[in-house]
Amino acid sequence: MRRFDFAAGTAVVTGAAGGIGEALAHGLARRGTDLVLLDRDAGRLAAVAAALRAAHPDRRVTTALVDLADAAATARVAEEVRRLHPRLRLLVNNAGVALGGRFDQVTPDEFGWVIDVNFRAVVQLTHALLPALKAEPGAHLVNVSSLFGLIAPAGQTAYSASKFAVRGFTEALRHELVDDGIGVTCVHPGGIRTRIARDARVGSGVPADEYEAARRRFERLLTIDPATAAEVILRGVQRRRGRVLIGWSARLPDLLSRLAPVGFGRLLALAVNRPARPRADAAHPPAAPAPTRPPAGAAAAAPAPPGGPGEPA
What we know:
Layout: E1 10-14, H1 19-30, E2 34-39, H2 42-55, E3 61-65, H3 71-84, E4 90-93, E5 99-100, H4 108-134, E6 140-144, H5 157-177, E7 183-189, H6 196-199, E8 201-202, H7 208-219, H8 226-238, E9 243-246, H9 248-259, H10 264-273
Parallel strand pairs: 1-2, 1-4, 2-3, 4-6, 5-8, 6-7, 7-9
């Protein structure tokens, strides 16, 4: 399969109002790609689109608001995108949400919300827009899974289930679409500095004193800038890579899970729970925010681990 030509058409990117999605949009615009950006955050999405139009006035940038947890709304947006863009060069299913808490601390509805956004919406958008990809020779599909689509730590039953599902779906599609000349990439980000941990929901059965400490532990593992992650993804797309792991925080756990499929969990727990190194300004540390229980359905910091380190918001 030939290398991907970014300057030949239009890309749809979900979760484009921040994090990896925003960085991908800028990287694609620099490469000459027109953009259709999807997100649920109207303010941030408008700001991203304005910045892109200012920096790349020769690129067409359109936006659509959609809550991917709403299947009917997702179907309407997908139909509108397909009507306006009957030929698509690239689809990037990047949007994702997180839910903190052990399985017995979350409700079936909370669990289902994660599955809806992280997996069902990926399937729905891919199914709706696949004809537009098939109409464009040399098109490509990118689905963003996670480090937690490679390993499944405690406290992440919903998130890991959704991201393992994305991985399996994407790998099967890769084999199905090869004869159509469509490249397919599954992305597994490691510790990317995005808002997903801060914006995650907390299971209704999680004690308030658990999730704030866990969030602080995990935030120190988020060391990779979204722009760096986006460049890794786009290089992988250009080379038609089937699998892209971002950072040692993804590659090392992947290796350990294959070398020690059962015992690697103990090593992961040791790494996550190790004491933080003293800082130079430790004599005057900043005051930690007091944990507060978010209102039902509101975004909040997640308990350990806070849902796919550094996934797109």
